[in-house]
Automatic annotation (TrEMBL):
Keywords: Cytoplasm, GTP-binding, Hydrolase, Magnesium, Metal-binding, Nucleotide-binding
Name of the protein this chain belongs to: GTPase Obg
Gene responsible for this protein: obgE
Function: An essential GTPase which binds GTP, GDP and possibly (p)ppGpp with moderate affinity, with high nucleotide exchange rates and a fairly low GTP hydrolysis rate. Plays a role in control of the cell cycle, stress response, ribosome biogenesis and in those bacteria that undergo differentiation, in morphogenesis control.
Matching CDD domains: Obg
Length: 503
């Protein structure tokens, strides 16, 4: 049964915006008291929040499809729709967010960070908000826009100060259990550890975390064993602790050859840009299992050679807790020194400036695309694409309002300059978009304003008045008299005769 997941793909759908309402207020003796349609509510966003109490992405592995609440639709009597509830997704500290193409979006490496990954749709305006001095009673409302629909990749990189690396069965799990309160699985067979384990180590001078990374073997950087899947958890560590097995019985293995293999794999692993390569970070060596007499002799024999290569070396026994106190203090000094260096780097970090949108930025662009039936003119831009989504094409007045908005930002003139003619195919938006047969003769929405809306409270009455009933009765009596007179004229002309008269 899967208990740890450090990479998952999420399929997100933010809530849609609610539609605006088209309504006319009706009062006693005043059936057309003005527009009173409310606005639609905005759809809920989807937000990633780093939570220190979350340590795995397992919940998203079982249910990767997440959706936030949509906004409510507007109603009459100036009532706005409800805003969709924001959906918060807790993720572990150290989660890297990437898009579907693998491009990094954000690195959530601190507790409490928030990232809006999918924005909810915008609610449509009701006809009350669309009323102006020239358009006193709009007969339409704007539709809500759909929320973002996308997929992202979450990749967990453990935030630990020290990483324990080494061959399988080198005693890393036993060491982290002896130095901290962590309870990893310990057994006498290789690859017992199937996922990284974190533990907290406390000394009188410092407090830091250590990570037990699953065993590395030769070729791990190329995909052999389990090391490649978990080397990402070493990227954030301040120091590396090489745990070398001095009691191994495998032929051709010894502490020095094991160290060379591990260093080669760490050097072959590409770290993100701007980070120090793994082999250039502070590293210590722990010669483990000295509780075995032969292992102690081997550790004392190879210690001078390892120290000559520049590594601080400690002889330890994870089972007997021998040498762990000195190792804890040494690791604490390395971690505190790295923290001080990072603090100085943060003080001189350049200030991040978020610049507003340029005032002269073009609101749209037109691309001419060739096709089998002539040129196709594609309009791309944030405003035109949103306006098309908000337009109710079943309402002529709404279509005219859209034409006014597009003409106001210069799309009509730009199409003419691009070579478009009456009847040319125009597409607004990427992909299929919304297709039009362009007709530049439409000047304004006033040409298509034919009604004040379709509010059911303004339906025409079907019950006739007394005057209408009286006029209908007189017309009916006149028609009967005219029919009798016509029959009398036909009889006098001999066109027909009574049967009784012929007998």
């Amino acid at each position: 049964m899967t208990t740890f997941v450090d990479e998952v793909t999420l399929y997100l759908r933010a809530g849609d915006g609610g539609n605006g309402c088209m309504s006319i207020r009706r009062e006693k003796f005043k059936p057309l008291a003005g527009p009173d349609g409310g606005n639609g509510g905005n759809g809920g966003d989807i937000v990633l929040v780093t939570d220190p109490n979350t340590t795995t992405l397992l919940s998203y592995h079982h249910s990767p499809h997440r959706r936030s609440e949509s906004g409510g639709f507007g109603m009459g009597d100036y009532r706005n729709g409800t805003t969709g509830v924001e959906l918060e997704l807790p993720v572990p500290v150290g989660t890297v967010v990437r898009d579907a193409d693998g491009n990094q979006i954000a690195d959530l490496d601190e507790p409490g960070m928030r990232l809006v990954v999918a924005e909810g749709g915008q609610g449509g305006l009701g006809n009350n908000s669309l009323a102006t001095s020239k358009r006193k009673a709009p007969g339409f409302a704007l539709l809500g826009t759909p929320g973002d629909e996308l997929q992202i990749i979450l990749e967990l990189k453990s935030v630990a100060d020290v990483a324990l690396v080494g061959y399988p069965s080198a005693g890393k799990s036993s060491l982290i259990a002896a130095m901290s309160a962590a309870k990893p699985k310990i057994a006498d067979y290789p690859f017992t550890t199937l996922h990284p384990n974190l533990g907290v180590v406390e000394t009188p001078a410092s407090r830091y975390t250590i990570a037990d990374v699953p065993g590395l073997i030769e070729g791990a950087s190329e995909g052999r064993g389990l090391g490649l899947d978990f080397l990402r958890h070493v990227e954030r560590c301040s120091a590396l602790l090489h745990v070398l097995d001095c009691a191994t019985l495998e032929p051709g293995r010894d502490p020095i050859s094991d160290l060379d293999v591990i260093l080669a794999e760490l050097d072959a692993y590409p770290v993100p840009e701007g980070q120090v390569p793994l082999t250039q970070r502070p590293a210590l060596i722990a010669l483990n299992k000295i509780d075995v007499p032969e292992a102690r002799e081997l550790a004392e024999f190879v210690k001078p050679d390892l120290e000559a290569r520049g590594f601080p070396v400690y002889l330890i026994s994870a089972v007997g807790h021998e040498g762990l106190r000195e190792l804890k203090f040494a690791l604490g000094e390395v971690v505190e020194r790295d923290r001080a260096e990072r603090a100085e780097a943060e003080e001189v970090r350049p200030r991040v400036v978020i610049r507003p949108r340029a005032v002269d930025e073009k609101p749209f662009e037109i691309k001419v695309e060739g096709g089998s039936y002539g040129n196709l003119y594609r309009i791309l831009g944030r405003k035109p694409e949103r306006w098309v989504q908000q337009c109710d094409f079943q309402n002529d007045e709404a279509v005219g309002f859209l034409a006014d908005r597009l003409a106001r930002i210069g799309i009509e003139d730009a199409l003419v300059k691009a070579g478009a003619q009456a009847g040319s195919t125009v597409v607004i938006g990427p992909g299929d978009g919304v297709v039009f047969d362009w007709e530049p003769t439409l000047a304004s929405a006033a040409e298509v304003m034919t009604a004040h809306g379709t509010d059911p409270r303004l339906d025409e009455r079907t019950r006739s008045t007394r005057k209408e009933k009286r006029e209908a009765y007189y017309d009916w009596m006149d028609a009967k008299a005219e029919a009798r007179a016509e029959l009398e004229r036909e009889r006098e002309a001999g066109l027909w005769q009574d049967d009784d008269a012929g007998q």
